[in-house]
Every structure is written in structure tokens, then in C-alpha cells.
Design goal:
alpha+beta, Rossmann fold, 6-stranded mixed sheet, 8 helices
Length: 267
């Protein structure tokens, strides 16, 4: 399993005044919560049955409690993407965390039917509809704002396009995100003119991306957030994260508009 959603959480106050938090899929979500709120004191995650765990949080301010509640609600609606089995031979922990707002299509419906975000991504990319682009940028910016770890990123950058592309949705979205959040965005990052990845099997994708990225400014010690319109197999995101890490980036995250139901592209 490489895609997860926080299906539930129990966040209650105990008789002694501490807050009790129980979550599922502890190996995935406990590190995400700890990374987002490093200053919150708790007793450590204690395992229970079925991959669930719990902890008791002590001396938390009302503001942090509200922020944590909001973060848990965000994780309840946001897809968390991890390294798939077919990518594990090629990558390790280059991406700290990766997310998608939703899948592009609804599950189990024939003929295929877009989700709301999937429909916005499709018309934004294929028809360049300004309203759809605006709605996607708002949704991405709100996610970044509500996610403490992503909000702390030093750099927000779009997945770089091939030079021959005349329109690149990720770059447009990043510029709009910068306006919405009131912060600088972008990075002097380029990609060579490589074959379209969707036409290549996995091994050839990785070969095509190796050495394809070029950086003209330092990312040494920086936290980088990659924004993309579509996360399919994850090959591009993990390859770029690997490149950024080799160039000194401290942490790398990814946030995509949509995830495809397939993890394997043309494998």
C-alpha cells in the first residue's frame, strides 16, 4: 500500500487534563504529526492493535490544540503518498512526505468520472481555463497554510517542464500560490528536453531523468516543496527530490493536485 488517508482520529481530553490522541497507520502518520508539531510534548506513541497507536499530550496551549485539530482534519481529507514497491530499488528517503489533494478519477465507476479536483486539473491543463487554475491554486495554498511542515518550506517550486512545453500548469500554480500566501516562490531549476515520460517504461524513465535536472542557485540546507499537477508513479517527484538532496537540500516534500489510481505508469 502506497497511498493512505487518515480515516479517523480520536482527540479527547482526559479526566487528568491531558489530551489523548489515537490514530491508525501509526508508522505513516505518527512521524508526520511529530514533524509538524516538534514542540508539542507527549509521552511517545504507544502501539495498540491493527497498526493503531495512541499518546497523551501534556501542557498544550489552546492555540496549538486548535492547530493540531485542524491538521488532523486536513490529514483526514488529504492523500498521503509513499514509496511504491517498484520504486524502492531506485530510491530511499529522498522525499520526506508527499501528498495529493485527491485522485483524478472516482474509484470503481465506469465509464470514468472525474473527481472535483480531477476535473479542475483536467480543464486547467488541457484547456487553460483561468477559473479552474484559480481554484486549484487556492486549494493548494490552503493545504500549505494548514500543514505546518509544508508552510515552513524555504522554497516552493513547480516540477520543471521540458523546454519545448509552451504551457506548464505547475509553474502557473506556484506563481498563484505565491500571491495567495504573500511569499516568494520559485527556483532557478531547469530540465533537459527528454522524451515524454508517459511513453517510457519505468527503467527508461529513471535513466531519462538522471542528469536531466539543472540548478542555478543554492539549495544548501533548505527545505524544498515541489508542486505538481499530477503524481502518477512518483518517478519524477522522487528523481527531482534525489537531485535536490544531492545538491544539499535538507528536506524535500511534494504536493500534487491529483494522483492517478495506477502506481505503475507503463511498467
Amino acid at each position: 500500500m502506497s497511498r493512505f488517508i487518515l480515516s479517523f482520529f480520536n482527540f479527547t481530553q482526559t479526566a487528568g487534563g491531558d489530551l489523548s490522541l489515537t490514530i491508525p497507520i501509526c508508522n505513516v502518520y505518527a512521524p508526520i504529526i511529530d514533524r509538524a508539531f516538534p514542540r508539542i510534548k507527549h509521552i511517545g506513541w504507544r502501539p495498540t492493535v491493527n497498526r493503531k497507536c495512541y499518546t497523551y499530550i501534556k501542557q498544550i496551549s489552546d492555540n496549538d490544540r486548535k492547530r493540531l485539530q485542524g491538521f488532523l482534519e486536513l490529514l483526514h481529507a488529504l492523500w498521503c503518498l509513499t514509496l511504491t514497491p517498484h520504486l524502492r530499488p531506485h530510491f530511499k528517503k529522498e522525499l520526506n512526505e508527499a501528498y495529493a489533494l485527491d485522485f483524478n478519477f472516482k474509484q470503481g465507476i465506469e465509464p470514468l468520472e472525474y473527481t472535483r479536483i480531477g476535473s479542475l486539473e483536467h480543464v486547467a491543463k488541457e484547456q487553460r481555463i483561468s477559473g479552474a487554475i484559480r481554484e486549484l491554486a487556492k486549494a493548494l495554498a490552503l493545504t500549505i497554510h494548514r500543514h505546518p511542515t509544508l508552510a515552513r518550506a524555504d522554497l516552493i517550486v513547480g516540477m520543471p517542464p521540458r523546454p519545448s512545453q509552451t504551457f506548464h500548469l505547475a509553474d502557473v500554480l506556484v506563481r498563484r500560490i505565491g500571491v495567495i500566501l504573500g511569499r516568494d516562490v520559485g527556483l532557478s531549476l531547469t530540465k533537459d528536453e527528454i522524451p515524454k515520460l508517459r511513453n517510457l517504461p519505468l527503467e527508461k524513465k529513471i535513466v531519462a531523468l538522471k542528469g536531466a535536472f539543472h540548478l542555478n542557485e543554492s539549495v544548501e540546507g533548505k527545505t524544498v516543496l515541489i508542486v505538481d499537477d499530477l503524481y502518477q508513479s512518483g518517478t519524477s517527484a522522487w528523481s527531482l527530490a534525489k537531485f535536490l538532496r544531492k545538491n544539499g537540500a535538507r528536506e524535500v516534500y511534494c504536493l500534487a493536485c491529483v494522483k492517478s489510481w495506477s502506481d505503475t505508469d507503463n511498467v
